[in-house]
Amino acid sequence: MYNPEILVRQIADLLEDKKAESVVVLDISRLTVLADYFVIASGRSELQVEALHNELHERLSKEGIHPRHLDQSKRWVVLDYGDIIVHIFHHEERSFYNLERLWADARQISSSAD
Asked: In a 3-state reduction of DSSP, which class is residue 75?
């Protein structure tokens, strides 16, 4: 069993280490029963979106952590880990969906500076 508060920071750090852009962690626990955290990150290309997803999946799988659900296209990936939902977008899709605006009442607990 994993600790969501620790895992969400590990996920954000991993994405930042792999050069994801604008990594943001939102605490949505008091706003919805969907999850406790959203991790939102951007890639500069379809290849980078795929590479970020592959690296995250590989690293967490080694720890025995697998998504309950995966939804993806070439330009975005959503991984549902129960307490944590990870969104990896091509930067254009991220602007279009603008999850930070939709969840503006969430507490931001981590972000990277670009």
From this structure: coil
